[in-house]
Amino acid sequence: MGKRNSQRKNAMMLESEDDDTSSTSSSTVRSDRMSVSGNDEVQHDKESLLDQALDALYEKRGSTREKALSVIIEAFSTSLQHQFVEKKFATLLSQCLSCIKKGSAKEISLASHAIGLLALTVGCGDNAHEILEESLSIITQALKSRSESSKISSLLECLAVITFVGGNDLEETERSMQIMWQVVNPKLGPNVAASKPPSSLIAAAVSAWSFLLTTMDGWRVDPRHWQESISYFLALLDKEDRTVRIAAGEALALIFDMGSFDKIPGESDNSANEGNKGREALTHIQGLRVKVLNQVRDLSAEAGGKGSAKKDLLNSQRNLFRDILEFFEGGYSPERSMKIGGESLNTSTWSELIQLNFLKHFLGGGFIKHMQENEFLHDVFGFTPKRKFLSSNEHLSSGEKRMYKSPNSVLNKARTQLLNKERMQAQHRNAGHFAVRQGNEDA
After folding, report:
1. Residue 195 included in any domain
2. Which protein family is named in the record (predicted)?
3. What domain range includes position 358?
4. Residues 311 and 383 in one domain
5. Which residues are CB-contacts of 267 (< 8 A; sequence separation ≥ 6)?
């Protein structure tokens, strides 16, 4: 009970403003003695905020846990929290999973994102595999409730990231991909009609599925394994929602890039029946390829609608399908290059491009920071940074400084609350309010 009470006291910083008065008297000794000089202050602030945010995940009030998860997400996005993870890895994972089991849709989304960031922080190894194994059944259970598409999308992204980092073999990756496939293609039984998922959920599931497919190295290339997925993605190219079309187009480009559809499966077997089945599957896929090509050609030149948002999405669609058209007609995969800290990050295959786009989306504003310092991502993209950012705020990029200093920053808001509380406590101590307690502590 003592530990739980301490955790609740440490979480007071994350309570709503209505609770500020009652929470001030329950501040921690760690906060009382916090350093307030230079870079040590910034680093100590972050460590203290993360400790308090972790403690706040034990709170009964859902809004408090949501605020705590937001602080954790921003801290893990904007810097690599290796020291915190080394000390609190198991506790953080356990509490985030608890939030998924009992939380609101918003809390589940936040907890899912935090778990994904935790996996990217620890990189490949036993901890990443533990994240996957501990999270899989809880995520699978949470996916069965389709009440909020944003929640399901976050769970799918989390499952993709933790499998990408922590999966040890093809079977584990296939297991996660099958879970994703069931979200967009639910099979509830012969006499049960499954509800159609919304477009945003379809786009998220297809993107997550494709992200994991990039790791499968040909996925035991046999045309018979591809027929269902190619037919499904081809049908999605007819959907009105452009995000769905884009996700389906990327998936199809990846499949045809990875698949060897010029070799008849079963020819090496002694079974004539297997060879015949292989020929039938190959012929069917070649027919599907023609249909895909026709659709891709149309989408690469589609006329647009009104509005800047629609125009941006239309341009994204056109650019993508022009790349896919060039790939289908000439065999050329799109090449991309972006500067990170003076060095170029290059992609030259569909797999690399899909991985890059997915992780940029997942990390958001923290992508550059992670590409500078995250050794796991260095290995994924074969990227060697020119220099690594130091932990000092003065060495952050201008964009990261704006993120840290922004009055809308979750981390900055919590930091401001913490520093204000410390100033108040310091004033009380100077007035003798804490003199007796301080004397007892010194004794």
Report:
1. no
2. Belongs to the IFRD family.
3. 345-387
4. no
5. 275, 278
Does the residue 52 lie in any domain?
A: no
The dihedral region occupied by 362, where left means phi > 0, alpha psi between -120 and 50, and beta the remainder, is: alpha
Integer Cα distance of 330 and 83 in angstroms: 49
Residue 129 has pLDDT above 50, yes or no: yes
DSSP string, 368-427: HHHHHH-HHHHHHHT---SSPPPSSGGGS-HHHHHHHH-TT-HHHHHHHHHHHHHHHHHH
Of 39-43, 48-52, 293-297, which range is least confident?
39-43
**323 and 357: one domain?**
no
pLDDT score, position 276: 63
pTM for this prediction: 0.77
Work out how many domains the chain is built from and give that number.
Answer: 2
Give the integer Cα–Cα distance in Å for 415 and 27: 15
Q: Which residue has the higher pLDDT, 310 or 84?
A: 84
Residue with the two structure tokens 């308090």: 52
| Contact of 139 with 350, CB cutoff 8 Å | no
The pair of structure tokens assigned to 416 is 């401001």
Asked if 359 and 304 sit in the same domain, the reply is no
Mean pLDDT over each residue of the chain, to the nearest integer: 78
Taking only the tens place, the pLDDT of each residue in 77-94 is 999 999 999 999 999 999
User: Quick one: 265 and 362 in the same domain?
Assistant: no
> Are 278 and 361 in a shared domain?
no
Q: Could you tell me the two tokens for 230?
A: 């190619």
- The stretches of 11-104 forming alpha helices (DSSP H) are 20-23, 29-32, 38-56, 62-78, 82-102
Residue 198 lies in a domain: no
Tens of pLDDT, residue by residue over 383-437, are 998 864 444 444 444 444 444 434 444 454 454 455 455 545 444 444 443 333 3
